[in-house]
Design a protein that fits this description.
This protein is an all-alpha fold and 257 residues long. It has 10 helices and no strands.
Length: 257
């Protein structure tokens, strides 16, 4: 691995520290999500561009990565820029941690930089991949496109619901949100399955299956569902409790009567 890629990790840690200082002033930690999405895209593309492996896996993974990073990062950027208050997940963290919030957020920001670099190592594996099966590359591309489209549709449906008069204090149960309480998280998780499929045949490809596992753990247990649902219960109360009783938490499934 070229030394430049290690220096990119140092750059990410520096940017994360600057963003942490910025959130100390603004009390808005939402920008770290923009940083994560764009950082994975930037570092991952650097691996793919400088790699020496077969062209087809590199181009396919690069197209998916670019589409995912620009779409997700831009969506979060617009949301953070337009919303008057901090994302509910981080507000809940800040409230729960009290005086320990700032030290926690510093290590959290550094952790996001390390995770971005670590997830980007996926594309180092693909970039050095000589052996590949074209059908598997196409299957991986199909999974990735489906996942990115699913997540984008879920975000669009939720945004449209929030813009309607009278939606405040109510829960979106339309479209994909009828079948999952977090269809956007499901799409994000599914997206990370595409790269292990594309990389089948590459050295170290087996390790890439840890990606969807890690993403599931983070979404289900750490920064995703727990804090999102805690904030939803606070803002929507019994309406969200009813939603919890009838709707699958993550994997899409028909709602209970």
């Amino acid at each position: 691995m070229p030394d430049i890629h290690y220096w990119l990790l140092v750059v990410l840690l520096i940017i994360a520290t600057v963003l942490w200082l910025q959130q100390r002033q603004t009390h808005n930690a939402g920008w770290v999500d923009v940083f994560w999405a764009w950082s994975v895209g930037l570092v991952g593309m650097s691996f793919l561009v400088t790699g020496n492996g077969a062209v087809m896996p590199r181009v396919t993974a690069g197209a998916l990565l670019l589409l995912w990073s620009l779409r997700l990062g831009s969506h979060i950027f617009q949301r953070v820029r337009q919303e008057p208050s901090e994302d509910g997940r981080y507000a809940a963290m800040r409230e729960a941690l009290g005086s320990k919030a700032q030290p926690f957020f510093l290590f959290f920001y550094w952790g996001q930089a390390l995770l971005a670099w670590g997830f980007a190592l996926t594309f180092w594996v693909v970039a050095e991949q000589d052996q590949f099966a074209m059908p598997l590359v196409l299957v991986g591309a199909a999974i990735g496109l489906l996942a990115i489209g699913w997540e984008a549709l879920a975000d669009k449906q939720l945004a449209a619901f929030k813009q309607r008069p009278g939606s405040k204090g109510k829960t979106c149960r339309e479209g994909l949100w009828r079948y999952s309480r977090h269809p956007n998280y499901f799409g994000e998780w599914l997206h990370w399955i595409s790269y292990p499929v594309i990389a089948i045949g590459a050295p170290y490809a087996g390790w890439l299956w840890l990606l969807p596992l890690a993403m599931f753990v983070f979404l289900w247990f750490v920064t995703g569902i727990p804090y999102t649902e805690k904030q939803a219960l606070k803002s929507r109360g019994d309406d969200y409790r009813d939603y919890q009783r009838t709707t699958s938490a993550f994997f899409p499934w028909r709602p209970k009567s």
